[in-house]
Amino acid sequence: MGKFTDKLHFNRTAITFYDTANTTLYDLGHEYPPPPHLYTILPLSCFANFSQAKELIYKIKEGLPRGTFIGAIGVDLNLDFTVEPPFLFSLSQKKVSEQYVNLNNTTGELHTSATEIDRETLCPDNAEGQGCVLSLDVFVLPQQYFQLIKVKILIEDVNDNRPKFPVDEICMSVPENTPVNARYAVEQSAVDPDLGVHGVQTYWLVNDFGVFTLDVEENEGGELTPFLIVTEALDRETQAEYITDIIAEDGGTPPLLGAATLKIVITDVNDNCPQFTESQINVTLHGNATKGAHLARLHAFDPDLGANAQISYAYSERVPRDTRSLFHLDRITGVIKLAGKINTVTATFYKLTALANGPGCIPAVATVTFHIIKVVTGPPAVIPRYIAPEKDGVVTIKESEPAFSPIAFFTVKNIDMNQRVDCYLEGTGPFRLGPYQLFKNEYLLETTEPLDYEKIQEYELIVVAKNTQGLVIKTFLKVQVLDENDNAPVFQQSLLEISVEENNPPNTFLTQLQASDQDSESRGEVIYLLGGDAPGIFVVDRVTGVLTVATSLDREEKETYRFIVRAVDQGTPRRESIATVVVSVQDRNDNSPRFINKDFTFFVPENFPGYGEIGVLSVTDADAGENGWVALSILNGSDIFMIDTGRGALRAKTSLDREQQGTYQLWIEAIDGGEPTLSCVTMVTVLLLDVNDNPPIVLFPQSNQSYMLVLPNTLPGTSITEVYAVDKDTGMNAVIAYSIIKRKGGEPGSFAIDPETGNITLKRELSNRGLYSLLVKVSDHGQPEPLYSTVMVNFFVNETVSNESYIQSLLTREADIEIEERPWYTGQMTEGPERYELFPCQPVLIALSVTCLGLFFLVVTLTSYICCKRFKKHRKKRSEVEIPLKMKDDSMQVVNRKLRQISNI
């Protein structure tokens, strides 16, 4: 394969050719636009000589939608698509290939199919540094062009997997005597199937309790292992375990998180020794006490746990063997019972040293003193009979038992007839001992109020029987309160108000619910649940109480979410409490202002007063606060128009004239007050409606002094001339009507004018020569009041015009007199002023004509002055050339034809 001397330029897409013979790499390009959604499409191998083409390589990212362009095989191979028969492209393994890509059989273009490519599924064993490749075999057909093209599609990783811990709860044991800065590896590290920076990058704790921190180490293989570091001294007796969440975070943008519950159990070490609750115990014993009588109970406590807290009781070696035999000490319970018969003759006092032994500890020491009282007669005996469950002198009673629940009966025996025995109770607590009804020497022990395990779990009572001789018999009794699920969990806050900005990333942390339960064991274990009114987008961790929102929130869709959360214990029956969560979505400037209409059109009559309201532009912004404040401005035409931002009212600074400009197009911009600001633009069209403010303008004849020569033999029905006028208004305001309002000369009805065209026609034969004048009114059809102009149309009836100056003098003189309804000349007409015969009442007619014409011209002059000021520019454009009426017939026809053309325009 030879080297290339020319390069084709690509648009962002590079194609690389390999020279298999010379192992030379060539880069070519073409003007093929890059496909959307692809950061890089890099066919790494293509060919200048098609017959040697072997392999094409493209690069795409995983998870692209259906129809995304991958590459054009035919274009990249530089094929000539004009050949016949045309090229065809085919996949050799359609079932496998078409699962992910679609191939255009005629163009060779590759697109993604409906099945999104998941790199982790396609290449499950793909490691760092290894590419995930989708290989295709493409046939180029028909047979005369046949070629096998190897296509490789490199699938690039995107951050579409969040880190995941192998277990939901990681349990670690840390001894309480662990030194500060000791490190413990968290073996159950998170796994992220994504590669590179999209994999796990760091770990962190939601709550370190001020005694832990987390460090991350990387081994030679690049794997990260989190290490738990102890930063403060631990004490199991203060806190036995710590529960928090460990978070694994990847390096994507935005990063994805994975969480697991981290339970740190503080294991016990034997750092405490037993201690007696009472180091001095005095017991009074009657000499006639029966064997097996309960005398006393030793009680020692070790705050350690398990085997480290096991206590055994024993007498000191200094206690004589026979004494130890007489007073039996139970090594487990610490109960001392009488094991033999007391010899009251030789012994009246015993002092015993008792030890409480713990593993690896120096024994605690207590002294038990027995005082022996000699009894001449048989001493009274107190016989207990238990109603509540009892074992080894320990009575158990549920805290749910009501007040005055019976515990035991005590019967006093061996009482002489002349003796009186008092029986009473020693010890504190809600108990009482009293005679039972009318039975003698029967006493009932009962509660006086309900017991509460959460306040006191255990009571030690002594039933004392004392006779009149001072003999005292004591019976020891221990009452243990059994816990029941009588406490519901209690939230630290009954109302949780949370603020979160809209457009938040999915799975955003909102808060951690915290509730406590005073009950013991599983009855005090709390799980967290959402109430039935909670939207499905909120998620709470049952164990940790971490509340998250699964989706992105939109304040414009909903601004406040209010729902119930429940804290439920594990007792029987279960108890629960509720709290109210109020999530307020804070606004962000994510909505542009929006006009109610795409564009606006306002119709305004011309001469509308300045600063009058033309129309109102309604604009809205879905955001709140400053983000929803909208200001309007005019992008063009601000020298003529202004806009009232408060109401959105459009106004014109001056009165507008349709004859100067009939349509205005404005671009109005609406800008909100957010940061950054958002805006939108709309087009406003202002159409001026015509007002009848222009009278018709007579273009022909152009002067009241103009005249036309009319032959005396002109036949009736002949069109003599026409009056032509225009009106600058539109519509009915510009529709013109012509009428003859006065005449001078000729008989009534001699002339007629077409009201629509202004064409003047001779209706009767002209028998008299001389000057005829018609006053023509040119009026429009405007509303509410039509406007009009007048023009004088003069005819000189004769065969020729030999003395034009005389006719002009007549026109000048006649302009000042009122025109009558009949001709002013009835005699024979010849050329010369001496041949004219004036009317006999000429002075009177002249005076009346002058008066009427004066008033008429005054009105016309005022009207013309007002119109001229408004249309001064247009008047300058009007032709100043006056067309005289004295023309030959052929010249008049030419002029009439030109004026009709103007009229048609």
From TrEMBL:
Subcellular location: Cell membrane
Pfam families: Cadherin (PF00028), Cadherin_2 (PF08266)
CDD domains: Cadherin_repeat
Membrane topology: Single-pass type I membrane protein
One GO cellular component, as annotated: plasma membrane
Keywords, alphabetical: Calcium, Cell adhesion, Cell membrane, Glycoprotein, Membrane, Repeat, Signal, Transmembrane, Transmembrane helix
Cadherin domain mapped to chain residues: 52-165, 173-276, 277-382, 389-491, 492-595, 596-698, 702-825
UniProt cross-references to InterPro entries, sorted A to Z: Cadherin-like_dom, Cadherin-like_sf, Cadherin_CS, Cadherin_N, Protocadherin/Cadherin-CA
Superkingdom: Eukaryota
PROSITE patterns: CADHERIN_1 (PS00232), CADHERIN_2 (PS50268)
One of the GO BP terms on file: anatomical structure morphogenesis
Sample GO molecular function, one term: calcium ion binding
This protein's name: Protocadherin-20
Organism from which the protein derives: Seriola dumerili
Lineage, top ranks: Eukaryota, Metazoa, Chordata, Craniata, Vertebrata
